[in-house]
Amino acid sequence: MESGARRQKPTYDAFISYNTKDGAVVHRLAEMLHEEGFHVFLDDWSLVAGEPWHERQNEALANSPCCLAMWGPHGLGPWHNEEVRLAVEARVSGRSMRVIPVLLPNGPDAALEHPDFLDRYTYCDFRDGLDQPRSFTRLCAGIRGEAPGPPEPRAATPPGGSTDAAYRSEFNTPAKGWRRSSVVTAARAAATPGGPPVVLCGLPGIGKTHALCDTADDLRAGRTVLALSAGGTVAAEPRFLVDGVNDWLDRAFDRGLAGEDLYPRDWPDALAALLARVADEPLLVLLDNLGTDRVGRTILSAFAGLRDCLVLATAQEHFADTTDVLHVVVPPMSHAEGTDFIAHVARSTNLPVDPAELARQLPGDVLSHPLALRTFLAHTAYVPAPLLIRPDLPSDVLSARKLVATAVARLPAVHRKALAYAAVLDRVPLADLLSAGMALPPWFTASLTDLGPRCLVVQVAGGIEVPQLVTQALDDVDPSARRSALHDILAELADLAAEAENEALGALAGALGPLALVSVETRGGRALRGRREPGGGGRSGVA
User: Fold this and answer.
1) How far, CA to CA in Å, does 529 sit from each of 233, 360, 462, 502?
2) Among candidate residues 131, 135, 140, 298, the one with its CA nearest the CA of residue 230
3) Contacts (Cβ under 8 Å, ≥6 apart) of 224
4) pTM for this prediction
5) pLDDT digits (tens, 9 = 90+) for 227-277
6) Which of 141, 80, 130, 87 minimizes the C-alpha distance to 106?
7) Which of 36, 50, 364, 504 has its Cα between 20 and 30 A from that of 423?
């Protein structure tokens, strides 16, 4: 079946209708639903470039059992209003369409007075924020066409601690019962009160934030938790982070500072003044998506100075030129981890898949990338896995995978060239090359000092490994890069072979076997890529 034919009449669990001006919070809520296993229609995720969007949206609405009618600070937009009207008409005309009004954070009370919107339908109220477990339970039950039932009994609060894991809502990472145990164990072992900050670093979409929250679950007992998203606007203007810390101080300790005591100071001094007010408190500080520039280092240093504080952060690369940070690598998933992840999702959502067989069929880069794999599994609730794999993967799976391609595309040209060189030498024992007299180019060895901290290559005992996820991204960005690097390496080896003594010939023979496999791959496109056992490309551990 052609991939285009599969898209003609997709079936969704819910159609999301919203005002584009409220797009950021709608996307966060859609991600929460996606994490729960729902297949939702969101225009940014579901529309295919080059196809008529209005017709596709109407088809999606017609093939969805319910419409989530979002109402946020900006009210109903023109197309938004039309979609809600069509959904209400479908309901009134007798079709089994559920219309679920969803009141977004900071939404106006005027929504409650809108007759077409709320008069006849039970709504889900998130006006006080997305961290409303009962409202989210009601929303999920409404999508399934069920009543939410009574609330679950509250768990007892442990001595000195809290059962509230609000950081998962802050970072949009609901608990799913599966964790990267090796990563969490390494992070937990590295974290010491008053010790160096622990930074979980890895490629985009690789599961750093989930590992951060799983580690926090193990360490939060007896500590007050401060969770802050440190990317986006915070990276551009650190004053937002200062405001977040001040609000938290008010909520948790009633120790916030008044504006006149805070804003005349430069932001590093303001942050230091706030943290001085909790200098002796047992804290767990979580900083997600922290930049590794001067701003990020300043933020880490401020929290690291607290006597009884555990600091955990995520970043896409190592902090350079610093010895007061412990790095824990979050690598791509190994074949075994990917298979185990499939098995967990299949059990928890009742998916009709054989984990071992599906792991064997999937491209290795998808199996190793948590976001791409989770997105693929969401599709298998509606389409058999073999039809999703061939002839082409669903577009949103490819989009998740392209997060790594974006990171590769942003590299300087010489670093991409070095990455291609490393990908060719990935299976080659470097000792054999050096014994044969081959000199690695200076630009290559210099680039490794940058590619390693970016988690694009991993140095191992025998040489260098490049995660298959990165190799795929490099081929997407520059399809000829590996072929060109292979040509240069083989040309130099040919010159060495012409003059080699017997000992050197033996070393060259050890290198030529793996290079022959690379040659077949680069000539045959990606034909062999799915057969390569997708190791993680690196071990989780403290660097």
Assistant:
1) 39, 12, 22, 34
2) 298
3) 162, 252, 253, 278, 281, 282, 283, 284
4) 0.65
5) 998 887 777 789 989 999 999 998 889 898 888 888 899 999 999 999 999
6) 130
7) 504
Compute the average pLDDT of residues 327-339. 92
Residue 199: what are its φ and ψ, rounded to 5°?
-115, 120
Query: According to the 3-state scheme, what is the secondary structure of 63-91?
Result: CCCEEEEEECCCCCCHHHHHHHHHHHHHH
Q: Whats the size of the chain, residue-wise?
A: 543
442-494 pLDDT, tens digit per residue, is 998 899 888 988 889 887 766 788 998 899 899 989 999 988 988 888 887 77
The answer to whether 245 and 271 are in contact (CB under 8 A) is yes
Q: How far apart are CA 433 and CA 502, in angstroms?
A: 14
d(CA 375, CA 368): 13
pLDDT at residue 224 greater than cutoff 80:
yes
Residues 453 and 329: their CA atoms lie apart, in Å, by 10
Residue labelled with tokens 């017997």 = 502
Using CA atoms in the order 374, 376, 381, 387, what is the torsion angle rounded to 10 degrees? Answer: -160
- Token pair for residue 509? 């023979």
Q: Please say whether the beta carbons of 291 and 231 come within 8 A.
A: yes
| CB of 312 closer than 8 Å to CB of 328 | no
Q: Which residues contact 10 (CB under 8 A, 6 or more apart)?
A: 41, 46, 59, 60, 63, 382
Phi, psi at 407, each rounded to 5°: -65, -40
Q: E strands of 397-527, at which residues?
A: 458-460, 463-465
Read off the tokens for 493.
Answer: 């080896």
Q: Take residue 327 and report the two structure tokens written for it.
A: 């790095």
| Residues 490 and 436 sit within 8 Å (Cβ to Cβ) | no
CA distance 338 to 373: 8
pLDDT tier, 114 (very low <50, low <70, confident <90, very high otherwise): low
Cα 83 to chain centroid, rounded: 31
Q: Note the pLDDT tens digit of each residue in 511-525.
A: 555 555 555 555 544
423 phi, psi to nearest 5 deg: -65, -35
Going by DSSP bridges, is the β-strand pair 309-315/463-465 parallel, antiparallel, or unpaired? unpaired
Q: Which two tokens stand for residue 66?
A: 């319910």
* Reported confidence tier of residue 10, pLDDT bands at 50, 70, 90: low
Q: 8-17, 153-162, 319-328 — which is least confidently predicted? A: 153-162
Tell me, what amino acid is at 312?
A: L
| 3 or 506, higher pLDDT | 506
Query: Cα(344)–Cα(176) distance, rounded to whole angstroms?
Result: 9
